[in-house]
Amino acid sequence: MSLRKQTPSDFLKQIIGRPVVVKLNSGVDYRGVLACLDGYMNIALEQTEEYVNGQLKNKYGDAFIRGNNVMRNWGHCSPDPEPCCLEYSVLLSPQHIFLLLVAWKLEL
Amino acid sequence: MADDVDQQQTTNTVEEPLDLTRLSLDERTYVKMRNDRELQGRLHAYDQHLNTILGDVEETVTTIEIDEETYEEIYKSTKRNIPMLFVRGDGVVLVAPPLRVG
Question: Residue limits of the Sm domain (chain A) (predicted)?
């Protein structure tokens, strides 16, 4: 669990294909495999699951999330029993929006 | 030869999320919006702002009413059908293939 300084594009190449949690401003969580990401923080996920308090809906195939909804400041992630947890912080966009993406191993 | 290289580049480079929604064009699509609204309709068009044109769309508005006496939360959803709809992009949260119930 180390914060590494790397360029945003390197970070993006590294996390594409990893399971991630995307937290929205509304408090809804989307967990899925990161298919791709662009400069506006628009996100495409595969095998997405939506969590609002408890599990609500399952989305299979691509789910596209509009970038402005992604939570800007995510101070800490909820305690997670999975042992393998990598934290990255990345600087994206000219407005200096910090995005914390937590990649963890999905239980298969 | 140059054409092959170019073609390879367009398929090998990482597609943007918007390129992936392009695959859903003319297909039934689920759109989740702000203010607890959901749309299911045929995706006719969209742009970089996520302004969207949907046809044969069913809108579901979900509201939570709290009973004053019992303080229980009652989920209510209102549906309506619209033949052709323009959606302004800033209200869109998520775009996905139609939801399967279950």
Answer: 7-79
